[in-house]
Amino acid sequence: MSSDDRPDGTLDPEDWEAFRAICHRAVDRMIERWAHARERPVWQSVPDAVKDALAGEGPPERGIGLEATLRRFEELILPYPTGNTHPRFLGWVHGSGTPVGALAEFLAGAMNANLGGREHAPVHVERQVIRWSRTLFGLPEGASGLLVGGTSTATLIGLACAREAKCPGDVRREGLQGGPARLTGYTSREAHGSVTKAFELLGLGREHLRLVPVDAELRMDVRALQEAVAADRAAGFHPFCVVATAGTVNTGAIDDLAAIGHFCREQSLWLHVDAAFGGLAVLVPELAPRLAGIEQADSLAFDFHKWLHVPYDAGCVLIRDEGIHRATFALRPDYLAAAERGLAGGNPWFCEYGIDLSRGFRALKVWFTLLAYGLDRLGEAIARNCADAAWLGERVAETPELELLAPVALNIVCFRWRDGRLSPAALDALNAAVVADLHEEGIAAPSTTQLDGRLAIRACLCNHRTDRSDLAALLEGVITLARRRAATL
Amino acid sequence: MSSDDRPDGTLDPEDWEAFRAICHRAVDRMIERWAHARERPVWQSVPDAVKDALAGEGPPERGIGLEATLRRFEELILPYPTGNTHPRFLGWVHGSGTPVGALAEFLAGAMNANLGGREHAPVHVERQVIRWSRTLFGLPEGASGLLVGGTSTATLIGLACAREAKCPGDVRREGLQGGPARLTGYTSREAHGSVTKAFELLGLGREHLRLVPVDAELRMDVRALQEAVAADRAAGFHPFCVVATAGTVNTGAIDDLAAIGHFCREQSLWLHVDAAFGGLAVLVPELAPRLAGIEQADSLAFDFHKWLHVPYDAGCVLIRDEGIHRATFALRPDYLAAAERGLAGGNPWFCEYGIDLSRGFRALKVWFTLLAYGLDRLGEAIARNCADAAWLGERVAETPELELLAPVALNIVCFRWRDGRLSPAALDALNAAVVADLHEEGIAAPSTTQLDGRLAIRACLCNHRTDRSDLAALLEGVITLARRRAATL
């Protein structure tokens, strides 16, 4: 028996004082890491010895106790993080988290609430977060919502509602196997892959998602959208939804939501807005006008774990018409019978609005974040990221060895090192190698993407800890490493 | 500016010592609740004043700081939990959580890893948890898996793989809109509603999920399954999968997995096993033989947050054929390009095996739980629940005022108060009222279900804190409250 074992057979610690001391030490350890975040490398590769230690096939027959488990965590896991809590993490679109959110996760874990339904305070917290969210985006009072893992699932739920609302017949009962409905949807070529994945999963098929061309600012070409819908109608398809993007993953471009919304209403198409991170720009007074039209969304997906820095994972879907939302997912078998009162009350239950019946208390970390910081302070961090991205774009533009590959629309800077002597392929390879070098040397962590067939170094400022000294270090790192590599060619 | 504001504009606390003190106090507060769990009511209704305080429409423009947020949490939320951390919570199938899991949630929140992919220690932790899981159920070394919110999503993923594997044509590209594939699936009438929801979401349509009758032990009638498949083939349908249940939600019945598996292989049908909670009975040597055949699953879904008491939410899907799993979900656009080295390495990425691209470090609380307690101790808690359920069933059977409504197959006891003078409808109403009374008086929290058209009080022992004194209190509560109600009729 390990020392934690209790004679009563429960999984609670025998000695609460010892458990308290372990928790306090764990808290102190994490504070030490937060307080000195900039002093560590952004990232370091996971040593083979660590991989080997985490590669065992057999599950642990006998426990080693909490203290030994925590030691193993500190030795094997904690030193090799994703890197996104570091000020010089600038890759993909990762939020950087907050100490407030981490504490909320402990409290949520301790309460261990199941938000699938029933009557208890946690469901009221999630409802409050959803109300706050719909207010933020200007959706009407009756709009419903659900917290989910992220925008991918939120988009899946939004498009399931669109299918329910627009598909002829009873799609839940008959499926799409019954007849040739030939539903078609529309999004831009710069849209996120999760839209394609949702079409696949829903049985719509990705060939029925039309990828509309973009304009010079990489926004959906609304004229081309109109033509595509008209052509499909003429060909006997059944256009049913448009997915607009508020902040594309490549460059942060924001589609013309007002124009697309107008077209959708006119054509009786469902408007889903993928606002994964860009939607939160509504918190910045100077940026909010660029999101005009977002309030017309029939469904809207966004993340709290990106630009609001709630710890992973936490996303949200909002649905304008609560009735359609519930009609898409509600199913209450006997064992989930609703009660007028008691714990089985609390109708409607959240499981009637999505896929999961067991749902953690994800809402608490969002509630803590919004309440502790307030929209103003969270918005200031977003504004600072955008201002710093513009500043970085200017530094790139004025540096002869670098070139900007796309306009800085929001918070994303796509650039690269250039050298007229190198072939396009060699230049792509060199820039890709520089990014891997930056990671491996722990200097900075941008990611890469392709723009117009060229590999771009992509710096996404979605990090409340980043300041201009970090961006200067990124550019200096790129130039130094690129020169070093170029010299060996 | 709130007192937490930092002049540097980050969301980190200005004063780390103050933050440390807040965290330590929060830890102490939760320990106090755990250590005195039995002394509180199981549940109490959420007062109107609390609902009103959580009903504000407008998001907080200005933050109130962490300390005030925590006070509001302690006042409004903490006193009104789901109740499943209490020893006399016996409703639905809820795990009761552990202090170890809560601490792991804090650590995961602090690391803030995104497990969508890339190369960092957390992805190796999730891989280890998946390897441990496949070993537990006897799936082969090549089997893949993914941690998800729960069995509902796990079943959706499993059935998406089944559709990919068995549907003629390229279902991701064409969808089900192309032609009359008429795929049909099979599960028992006692199966969980999540199977129906998965059929709906995947565009298969719930009318193409055949609900096979059950035998006297409420297990799928394998003969009836065979007949249903043959009849569908004869009628031009395309049978593609069977969903067997290891532990039904109503009574804990376990389908004959070996016989169903044999039939599936013979007929080239995909076998998905919904092992949401019952699958974990493999940890109990006396129960494991009843799960024989589970190792034949093509996909298997189960939860860590139920009988392993990992905090909500944490489920898992395992897929026998990694190639099919990846072929069902993989999509790597330019902005997710794989790298040979650096942070963008770490192939394959978890986002290629499921719906979500942003994925929290759910694996850590599972890893902590398995490693700290070990399978033996977790299995003992499960064994104790089953033994106590049998004991409770015997107490019901020997009590003239009560009747047992189904065999105690595993850990679930369905019973009710009886009174020959009352009509069936009045008896149903009385037993439902007794359950709500039990909740409202904070005595115990069973749930209800319907069996053979009769309302059952349903006690599910999925709680490591429950002992026989709690079960005796449940029975005493039922009898006292039922007599009181009957006296007023």
Would you kindly provide a written description of the structure presented here, covering whatever features stand out?
Chains A, B: Keywords: Decarboxylase, Lyase, Pyridoxal phosphate. Chains A, B: It comes from Benzoatithermus flavus. Chains A, B: Its cofactor is pyridoxal 5'-phosphate. Two copies of one chain form a homodimer. With 489 residues, chain A is of the alpha/beta class. The first copy, chain A, has two domains: 248 residues, Aspartate Aminotransferase, domain 2 (3-Layer(aba) Sandwich); 116 residues, Aspartate Aminotransferase, domain 1. Helix content of chain A is 41%, strand content 13%. Chain A is built from 14 helices and twelve strands. A seven-stranded mixed sheet of chain A has the order 2-8-7-6-5-3-4, sandwiched between helices. A five-stranded mixed sheet of chain A has the order 1-11-12-10-9. In chain A, helix 4 runs antiparallel to helix 12, helix 5 packs parallel to helix 12 and helix 6 crosses helix 8. The model of chain A has no long low-confidence stretch (mean pLDDT 95). At the A-B interface, helix 1, helix 3, helix 4, helix 5 and helix 6 of A face helix 1, helix 3, helix 4, helix 5 and helix 6 of B.
What descriptors fit this protein?
Pyridoxal-dependent decarboxylase (chains A, B); globular; Aspartate Aminotransferase, domain 2; Aspartate Aminotransferase, domain 1; 12 strands; 2 domains; lyase (chains A, B); PyrdxlP-dep_de-COase (chains A, B); seven-stranded mixed sheet; five-stranded mixed sheet; 489 residues; homodimer; alpha/beta
